[in-house]
Amino acid sequence: MNDQGTVLVTGGAGYIGSHAIWALHDAGRSVVVIDDLSTGNRVLLPGDVTLIVGDAGDRGRVEALIGDYGCTAVMHFAGSIVVGESVDNPLAYYANNAGVTLNLIRACLAGGITRFVYSSTAAVYGQPIRLPVGEDAPTQPLNPYGHSKLMAEQMLCDAARAHGLQFAILRYFNVAGADPEGRTGQSSIQPTHLIKRACQAALGLGDGIEIFGADYDTIDGTCVRDYLHVSDLAEAHLAALSHLAGGGESLILNCGYGGGASVRQVLAAVEAEAGVKLNPRTAARRPGDAAELVADAKRIRAALGWQPQHDDLRFIVKTALAWERRLIARRNPATAGP
Ligand SMILES: NC(=O)c1ccc[n+]([C@@H]2O[C@H](COP(=O)([O-])OP(=O)(O)OC[C@H]3O[C@@H](n4cnc5c(N)ncnc54)[C@H](O)[C@@H]3O)[C@@H](O)[C@H]2O)c1
């Protein structure tokens, strides 16, 4: 990487952001994090990383940070991510995802940052017409969360045309797993992600696991998703940053493996790793759930030379389970093993 300036990371104390921070840290990059700790936690960060507790949409503060720390690029993870919550409280989602991004872009331009890596989502596609879904497919979000993320994409595209911003928009599919070294992982109190919830159920936490819809036209009737290990995703961010630093053009890239697993296949992998039966309950379909969502993942490999290391559902589950055990041990030190 030919740019060794500091990377400003918004939302770096969250699930995916903290994995990116560890990857940047391992690569010897200087970073500064801004996070309001609304869902993040400082314990997920390396001890020597500077965390500024604040709003990524606070223009004055962010502009000052850029100058104080010599930031030359931004990775923008901060946001609100629960689809159902976005339906109940849409304006909060437009404020925190679209509004904050608008202010952040302005602060970056004012502070002289021109390289911007943005956390987008497969939710911008809605119900894809064709699978696997490529980056040029129509964007038709089904909920305010997806709309708010797509609005931010649009701002970046327009700011790039008008102000010379360079961007990498990364559309994540289903992110799962945890750092193989156990340094960070998904720590939300009320997770909605299937693999985390299934791991919790396998360890006796919560009240079991539900399958939402078993009558889809898929391999076994349950929804199929493209599960991606979070450490591979973190590496994709570093590759995107190198691409932009090398003068590469702005990009929109799917982040997935290009294969899918059904809910039942995920639950079977969790049962096999944990050595327990989950006995899931079958519930009604959730409105807005696509039967199948799998990435056409060719472009990211070609554009960034990204070579994922963990395209293996059992490995994803193994690291997620190890992280849940760590969280339990942290909460009850008396039950921790040697
Ligand atoms: N988890 C997934 O499967 C997934 C899939 C697609 C896209 N994404 C995107 O990835 C990004 C990160 O998601 P995550 O799963 O790590 O979520 P997360 O909730 O763990 O992390 C979000 C972080 O942003 C912080 N934050 C929220 N609003 C902020 C603000 N205004 N200012 C400063 N900090 C703020 C939170 O405290 C938290 O640390 C989000 O933008 C999300 O839309 C996630």
Features:
alpha/beta; Rossmann fold; UDP-galactose 4-epimerase, domain 1; 40% helix; binds nicotinamide-adenine-dinucleotide
Give an overview in words.
With 338 residues, this protein is of the alpha/beta class. The protein folds into two domains: 6-176 and 228-255, NAD(P)-binding Rossmann-like Domain (Rossmann fold, 3-Layer(aba) Sandwich); 194-225 and 258-332, UDP-galactose 4-epimerase, domain 1 (Alpha-Beta Complex). The chain is built from ten helices and 14 strands. The strands form four sheets. It has a seven-stranded parallel beta sheet with strand order 3-2-1-4-5-6-11, with helices on both faces. β5 (115-121), α5 (144-163) and β6 (166-172) form a beta-alpha-beta unit. The longest helix is centred in the first third of the chain and has 22 residues, at 90-111. The chain is globular and about 55 Å long. The relative contact order is 0.14. The model has no long low-confidence stretch (mean pLDDT 95). The protein binds nicotinamide-adenine-dinucleotide. The site of nicotinamide-adenine-dinucleotide has 29 residues, from α1, β2, α4, β5 and β7.
Explain the layout of strands and helices.
Layout: E1 6-10, H1 15-26, E2 31-35, E3 50-53, H2 59-69, E4 71-76, H3 83-88, H4 90-111, E5 115-121, H5 144-163, E6 166-172, E7 174-176, H6 194-202, E8 210-212, E9 224-225, E10 227-229, H7 230-245, E11 251-255, E12 261-262, H8 263-274, E13 281-283, E14 292-293, H9 298-304, H10 313-331
Parallel strand pairs: 1-2, 1-4, 2-3, 4-5, 5-6, 6-11, 7-10, 8-13, 9-14
Antiparallel strand pairs: 9-12
Helix pairs in contact: 1-7, 2-4, 4-5, 6-8, 6-10, 8-10
Bound molecules: nicotinamide-adenine-dinucleotide (NAD).
